[in-house]
Design goal:
alpha/beta; Rossmann fold; 5-stranded mixed β-sheet; 3-stranded parallel β-sheet
Length: about 210
């Protein structure tokens, strides 16, 4: 998310955007993260008040409501959530909107007519360059930029800014998760290693205990 915010700020600094609106979904506890985004320099912030455990499909549906309300020229977002690493919301959102998408982008350039964007992706085969019509969904790669530090004056200003709180009903969106997380458990601890004093002892243990020789 921070990389996406930084890129939006740079786009505005180049004179290629007039307003940056940040949006997130969650309970009041996420307001601290929203304040951090405001401190970085975004113009407005929206929080959709929903404390349910939402899967990527539900998140994408809610964001459709945000897009219809705000009508952005482009939507820049992180490539995956830090809590579940699903890497699905951007792609689903593009599909639901019928917008083009560029994923894992390491460079974004708006072309002169401002109706298209040229995006660079770093793939195993090399650099892939895409052109997408706007509006479009762009998900960011960590190599896109180095986010700026938040300044103290920025933090103070962020405290004074209001966060627009909306509900799914206000957005005209009805969602229910299609998947349910049944459990989350840490993997079992590995057994402690055993120090051996010689190659002969190692070979013996591999034969008799590990049964790999």
């Amino acid at each position: 998310m921070v990389v996406a915010i930084e890129e939006a700020l740079r786009i505005r600094e180049r004179g290629e955007a007039t307003e940056i609106v940040g949006a997130t979904i969650g309970a009041p506890a996420v307001d601290e993260q929203i304040r951090a985004a405001l401190a970085m320099g975004i113009d407005r912030a929206i929080r959709i008040d929903d404390s349910r455990a939402l899967d990527p499909y539900a998140v994408a549906h809610i964001l459709v409501g945000v897009v219809k309300k705000e009508t952005p020229h482009a939507m820049i977002m992180g490539k995956q959530a830090v809590d579940d690493d699903s890497n699905q919301v951007g792609q689903m959102l593009a599909g639901l909107l019928g917008w083009p998408q560029a994923t894992f982008v390491s460079k974004i350039e708006f072309l002169d007519d401002k109706t298209r964007a040229r995006c660079t992706r770093e793939t195993d085969a090399g650099l892939e360059i895409l052109e997408v019509n706007l509006p479009a969904i762009v998900t960011t790669d960590l190599r896109l930029n180095e986010p700026r530090y938040v300044s103290l004056p920025g933090l103070i200003k962020a405290r004074r800014k209001s966060i627009e709180i909306l509900t799914c009903d206000q957005l005209g969106v009805t969602v229910r998760p299609l998947t349910t997380v049944l459990s989350i458990a840490r993997p079992p601890k590995r057994a402690a290693g055993t120090r051996v004093e010689s190659v002969e002892e190692l070979i013996t243990k591999l034969k008799q205990e590990a049964k790999v020789l």
